[in-house]
Specification:
It is a single chain. By secondary structure, the protein is mainly alpha-helical. It has one domain (about 75-255). Helix content is about 70%, strand content about 5%. The chain is built from 7 helices and 2 strands. β1 and β2 (about 40-45) form a beta hairpin. α2 (about 45-65) crosses α3, α2 (about 45-65) crosses α4 (about 105-125) and α4 (about 105-125) packs antiparallel against α7 (about 225-255). It is a multi-pass membrane protein.
């Protein structure tokens, strides 16, 4: 009887291993083809890194050329950069508050500008002209890895803000207004990055997919209004994510949930 019990346990264990192996194989399923680089022992999406570096180069070039010769009476380029800075500063001040917003302007500004330029690059830059051994170039935010990374950065930022401002008392928010809500309050911290990442990824991917389908079906005239709509949508998505990131940071530093 004991031996039979061991056999039955072994069969269950083998069945669990087979199920885990099936899940592992499913996790390797990909949509389309991707161009990979091998960096150390890791395999990374090369096309996402390439387009991300291009976006970063655009932002650094804009910052360098607009601020290399600052004037008391600003020129057109300096005016443009100062307008962007004032917009980001107002957005951060509105969500975080007058007393605490200044240290967070660089973070919120970087998030907004990176997403904004990434989204616009998907609509304006002819990525598909450049051929790769596998896959094709696209906007960085058209990849779930990029949007998840941005969402996780936001989560780390608001945890840091709450702990830095309130110390260990920050964790008291999980049992407010009643300890019964502890599981829901913990679940909320998992749903925030999921919501941020899938909202941005879904909207940008859907926009590029709609334009690609329309161009294949009706190559002239019809896709143009959709492309202009995509430019508007990309700006709105950058504004939404930056606003939510600032709101989460401001909420974490408040004395109540």
């Amino acid at each position: 009887m004991f031996r039979g019990g061991n056999t039955h346990t072994a069969q269950i264990f083998i069945g669990i291993l087979n199920d885990l192996n099936d899940l592992y194989e499913i996790s390797g399923v990909e949509v389309g083809q991707h161009f990979y680089w091998q960096i150390g022992g890791f395999q990374v999406h090369a096309q996402v890194l390439i387009t991300s570096w291009i976006v970063i180069a655009i932002l650094l070039s804009l910052a360098f050329f607009a601020t290399r010769n600052l004037q008391t009476i600003p020129t057109s380029g300096q005016n443009f950069v100062e307008y962007i800075l004032e917009f980001i500063r107002d957005l951060t001040r509105t969500q975080i508050g007058e007393e605490e917003y200044r240290p967070w302007v660089p973070f919120i500004g970087t998030m907004f500008l990176f997403i904004f330029v990434s989204n616009r690059s998907g609509a304006l830059l002819p990525w598909r002209v450049f051929e790769l051994p596998h896959g094709e170039l696209a906007a960085p935010t058209n990849d779930i890895n990029t949007t998840v990374a941005l969402a996780l950065l936001t989560s780390v930022a608001y945890f840091y803000a709450g702990l830095h401002k309130r110390g260990l008392s920050y964790f008291g928010k999980y049992i407010q207004p009643t300890p019964v809500l502890l599981p829901i309050n913990i679940l909320e911290d998992f749903t925030k990055p999921l919501s941020l990442s899938f909202r941005l990824f879904g909207n940008i991917s859907a926009d590029e997919l709609v334009v690609a389908v329309l161009i294949s079906l009706v190559p002239l005239v019809v896709p143009i209004p959709m492309m202009f709509l995509g430019l508007f949508t990309s700006a709105i998505q950058a504004l939404i994510l930056a606003t939510l990131a600032a709101a989460y940071i401001g909420e974490s530093m408040e004395g109540h949930h």
